[in-house]
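Recall from the previous lesson that a structure prediction takes nothing but the amino acid sequence as input. Here we apply that procedure to Multidrug efflux transporter AcrB transmembrane domain-containing protein from Multifurca ochricompacta. The sequence below is the only information supplied.
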Amino acid sequence: MRGSCGSKGFFGKPLPCPYDGPAYEPDDKTRYLLASVCGEELAGGPICCNSDQLEVLRDNLNEAEPLITSCPACRNNFRAFFCHFTCSSDQASFINVTSTQISSTGQTAVESLDFFVSERHGRGFFNSCKDVKVGATNGYAMDLIGEGAKDYLAFLRSMGENKPLGSPFQINFPSSVSPGMVAFDKPPRNCADNDLSSRCACVDCPQICPTLPDLPTPGTSCHVGALSCLSFTLILAYSLCLFAFTTGFSLQTVLRRREERKYGRLALVPETTSDTPLSPRSHSRDLVGASSLARYLDGEQSSHSTTAPRNVGRGVTLLDPLDSVQPRQYRLNVKLRRMFYKLGLFAASSPWATFAIVFTLMGLLNTGWSRFGVETDPVRLWVAPDSESKIRKDFFDQNFGPFYRPQQIFITSTATEEHGQLLSTKKPVLSWDHLKFWSSVEADIRALRSSPNSYSLSDVCFRPAGPEGACSWADRVEYCANAPVDCLPDFQQPLLPKYVLGGLGCNIVVSDSLAPEARERAMEWENALAQYLAQIKERALTEAGLEISYSTGISLEEEINKSTNMDVRIVVLSYLAMFFYVALTLGGGYSGRDEEGVLASLRHWAVNFPSFFWQSSPSPLSTDPHNVPHMFPRLPSKLFVGSKFTLGLFGIALVILSVASSVGLFSALGVKVTLIIAEVIPFLVLAVGVDNVFILVHELDRQNLLHGPNASAPEQSLPYPTPISPAFRRSQFDSSHTESVDAASIPLYLPPEERVARTLAKMGPSIVLSSATETLAFALGALVPMPAVRNFAIYAAGSVLLNALLQVTVFVSAMVLDLRRTEASRMDCFPCIQIPARIQLLEPTPNSGGSGTIARFIRKHYAPFILRPVIKGAVMLIFGGFFVISVISIQHIELGLDQRLALPSDSHLIRYFDDMDAYLDIGPPVYFVSHDVDITHRKGQQALCARFTTCNEFSLANILEAERKRPEASYFSDPAASWIDDFLTWLNPDVDCCRVRKRNPDIFCSPRDNPRLCRPCWAGKSPAYNITLEGLPEGEDFVRYLKQWLISPTDEDCSLGGQASYGTAISLNDARDDVVASHFRTFFNPLKSQADFIGAFDAAHRIADDMSRRTGASVFPYSLFFVFFDQYAHIVSITQQVLGLGLASVLIVTAVFLGSWRTGTIVTAVVALTVVNVMGVMGLWGISLNAISLVNLVISLGIAVEFCAHVARAFMNSNAGLTVDHPLGQERDERMSAALVDVGPSVISGITFTKLIGMCVLALTRSKLLETYYFRMWFSLIIAGALHGLVLLPVILSLAGGPGFPMQEADEEWMSTAIRSGYEYTSV
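The prediction returns the following C-alpha cells.
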C-alpha cells in the first residue's frame, strides 16, 4: 500500500491505495516527518508511504497518545506496530490486500486486507498495554483502544474493525500465515525492561510493582470440628453438670429410700419417744405464728432448746417487749415508706389539689410543643455529629462539594409467558421496541418541568465540565456500550459502560450543593421526576412490557416520612387493647358482696323468665331469690360498681400525658423527635407504665379486704401470746380464715384515704426500684452517639420517669375517688347513678377475682412444685442449657442494618434495592483525601505520584494500585484516578495538551486558538520533559500550570484535560496559590450485603492509615455510605461498655433498695442471663447488632429488672413463720413461697400480660424495622424476663438469697401510727 486514494464518503477518512511496487527513498521533509512520528528505526531506508499517509498516521496516533503515553513500552509498541503497517519497506511480506473498492474520488482503494502478525509480537504488544491505566475514567486504556479485549487476538481484531471512528477499511489478522507470506515478528518492548524507553511505572506494569507486606492474619478462631472452642467448652461443661446432677440425684434417691426404710423399722419400737424423728423429711412445725421474726440472720442460728430465748433479730428477744415491737428494719426502706405514706395521704386527702398542682406542672412542660420538630434527614438521623466519619464528610463537602444526587432507574423486561404460564426467563430488554419506548421516556424527562418554579433537567443536572458544560448522554446505547471511546458524553470524557448503565439501568445525575437555594431547586425537580416515574411505571408495564424500579434523591427521606405516619391505627389498636385489658382486669378485686357472676345471672333469668307470666306469687320467705322471675335480668352490681373502666382509662391517659410532656420538655431543650420516638415510645411507655397501675390496684384490693367495709373480726386466736403491736399479715389471696390474731391489734375499718396511703407506702419503694432502674437503663442508651437512638433513649427515659411520678401522685388521687365511688355503690363511668343496695343474707366472703385464682394456683401448685429440691436442680440445668445455646448463638450475630427494613413494606424502594443488588455491577466510589502535604514541592509530589521513576515506592497512588491487586482484602475493583500523574502527563509535549503562545509563553492557548500560534508548554525546556520528574514545575509554577489544567476541557484532542475529570478533585486556598487538599478516586466491588459494606469500610480505613504512615501526609477515606457505617467500627466495644455500665447500675440500685448485696447480685445475674437469652434469640431470629438493637438490649436491662425487682423485694420482706430450729434453706423456701403468692399474680397479670398485649400489636405493623428490631426483640425479652423472674430467680433466691426483713410488712397499723407520730424504727 502507498498513498491515499480518496475516502469512502465525503467526510470519511482517507483510504490507502493498493500498491505492489518497490519501496522508495523519501525526501527530507517526509523523512523528518517519519522520524518525528515513528522514530529513527524507519527513517534510514526506503519506505512504502508518503507524507499524506504520515500526516494521517500522526493524527491517528495522537488520538491514542494521551491514553498510552504514561507507559513507554505500550506507546512505542503501538507506534511501531502502525508505523511498520503503514511505511515498512517489507510491508508486502506480511500484508495482503484481499479486496478493493472505488473511493469517492473514483480511485481504487483498499477495502480489506490481511495483516499477518506472529503470536510473539501480538501477545507482547497486548501484554505491554493491557494494564495501562486511564486515571480519569478509573479504567484501562485497553477499554478504550481495544474495547476491553482480554487477549491479543481480540485486541488486534478490535483495532482492525471497519467502523466510523476506527479504521476506514477492514484489517483482518489471520491466525495462520498464507503461503509466501511472513508474519510480522518485531520483538515487542516489555514494560519491565530497564530501558527507559520501555520501562513503565508500577501502576501500568504489575511486574515491577513492590509487594505490600502481607496483612496480619486475624486471630484464627479456635475450632473443634465445626464448633468454636468456646462453644465446645460450654457444651462439655454443661454435659458434665448434667451428668453430675443425674448421678447425684440417683444416689440421693437410693440413699433416702434406704434411710426411710431404716426409720420405718425404728418407728415400730415401743420405746421410741416422740422426740425421735419418724422420718428424715419430718420436721417439727411448732410455728411461732405470723408475728415471728427471722431467726437465721447472717448465719446466726438459735439454740435448739425450746426453753432458750427465741432469736427474733439482732439482740432482740420475746422477753424484751420494748424491742420486740420494733422489728428489724432497713433504714432506706423506712424513709421511703414514710415518704410515700405522707405523699399518699396528701394525694388521697386532697385529690383535687393534687390534680391542680400536677396538671399545672404538666401543662407547663407541654408548652415546649411550640418548638416541636421532626428530624427526617437520614444523615442527621443516623450519624453522630461528632463522629469521625461525619467530620470527614463535612470536610469533603466543604472542600470538594457534596456528592452528587443520583436518580437511578432500573429497566427490566417482564417474564415470558408460555401457554398462559409465566416462565422464569425474561425477554431481552435491549430490543428495538424497548429502546424506542425508553427513548420517548428520556425525552419526556429532559422536557420535564417542576412545579411551581418550572425547573428542568438542564437547570439542576450535574455538569462535570463546569457550569457551562453539558450534562446529557448520547442516545446510541448499544453502540456506546461496545465502543465508549467512540461515543462520548456531552462533556467529551470517555466513560465505561458500567458507569453509564450500571449493569442495566438509567442514571440521571443531579448536582448537589451546600447552598440551600440550589438544594431546594434540585429537590423540587426530583419531586417532579418521582411523580412522573410513578406514573410511567404503570404505562411501561402495559405498553412496553417493562418493569421499572427507581430511586430519586428525595425518595429515601420521603419513604421514611411515609413510614412515620402509616401506623397510626396500630398505635390506636394497641391502646384500645390495653385499655380493655386493664379495665376488665382491674375490677377483679371488687369485694362489695358475694354475688353470682354475669353468666349465672343471665342463666337464672332465662330459666325463670317463662314463669313470669303464669306463676302465682309465692311466699318471699320460702323462695330462693335466684328463682324469682323478672322481666329483665338482674345483673350483679359488681358489673356496674366494681368495674374500673374509668380508672383504667385514666391510667392510660396518664401514659399519653407522660409521653406528651416528655416531648414538650425535650422539644423545649432542642431535642428533635424521630421515627423511632413517634412509633415506639407510645408502646414502650404503655407497656411499662401500666404495670404500676396493676401493682397499686392489687395492693389496694388487699387493703380493702383487711380494712374495708366488709372486713370482719377473726374468729380464733392463736394458742400462744403475741406481741401487742405486730399484727397478723393477711394476704388478699387467702381463701380461709383459719389463721387469725388478736382482734384488738387490727382495726376492722379504715377510711379510704388511709387505705390508699398504706397502699402507696407499701408499693412505693417497689415502684421506685423498678422505675429508677428502667429510667437509668434508658438513659444509658443516650451513650450511643447515633442521634435517632440517642434521642429515643432520652425521650424514653423522660417518659418513664414522668409516668412514674404521675402514678404516685394523681393516680393515687384517682384511686381514692374511685374507691369512694365503689363504696357508695355508684356506677362506673356514670357516678351520678347510685345502685340501690340489695338485701344480703349470706355471710360475705372475700371475692376471688382473677388475681385470686392465680394466687391460689401459685400457693397450692406452683410454689410447692418449683421449690422442690429436684425441680430446683432441673431448673438450674434447663436455664444453664438456655445460657449455653444463647452464647453459641451470640457468636453468629451479624453487624449491620439493612436499609430496606427502615421502609414500609409496600415501598417502591424495596424493589429498587433488590434490582440494584441483582443488576448493578459497580460498587460505590471511594475517595482517599490527602491534606497537610506540600504538593507544590518535589517531596510532596513524590509522596503522591506513581507514573514517574522517582515516585516513592510506597506512594499514595502506588499503594492504591497494590491494594487493587488483592481485592479480597481491599474490596477495590478499579484503578485509582491519580490527578497528579495525569496533570504532570498533561505537560508532556508529545501529548500536545498544554499549549502557550509562541510570542508570549505566559499566556495559555485555548482550544479555539489557531494551532500555528501556539506551542507545547514544555517544548524547549531544559531539562526536557522526562519521567524522572527532573525539571517539572514546583512552587508557583506548579500552581500556575495546575490552575490552567483544572480549566482545560476534556475532549477528543486531549483526554487529559482536568476540567471534567478532576475539576472537583483539588481544593485550593482562598488566595488560590496553594493546594489545601486533594483526593484520589477509585471504586469498590459491588457491595451486596451489610458484611460487604462493613468490610469495605474497615479496609478503606486500614489503607488510609497505612498511607498516612508511609507518606507522611494526612490521608482519610470517604465514601457516601461511610457516615452510616461508622458505628460498626466501635459497636462491639460500645455494646460491652454500655451493658457493663447497665449491669453495674442495676447491681447498685437493687442492692441499695433491697438492702442486701447478696440478693442484689443474684438479681443482677438473672438480669444478665435474661439479656444473654435475648441476644441468643437475635442470632437465631436474624436480628443484627446495630445501634437500634443495642438500645433495645439496654432497655432489656431495665425491663428485666421489673420482672425481678418485685419478686426479690417481696422475698426480702416476707415472713417465713418457721420454728426456731428450722433449717435455713427451708426458711428461704417459705419466704420465697410467700413472696410468689404475694407478688406473683401482679407480675403475671400486671407485667407479663400487659407487655405482651402492648408488644404483640407491633406484629401488625407494616414497618419491617419495627417488626424486626422491636416486636421480635421485645417479645423475646418479655418471654425471657417472665421465665427468669418467675422460675429461675425464685429458685436461686431459695438457695442463696440474702437475709431479709421479715417483719417490715407485718404491721401496717403500727407502721402508720409510727409514721404519724414521728416514731423512729430501729434500723440496720
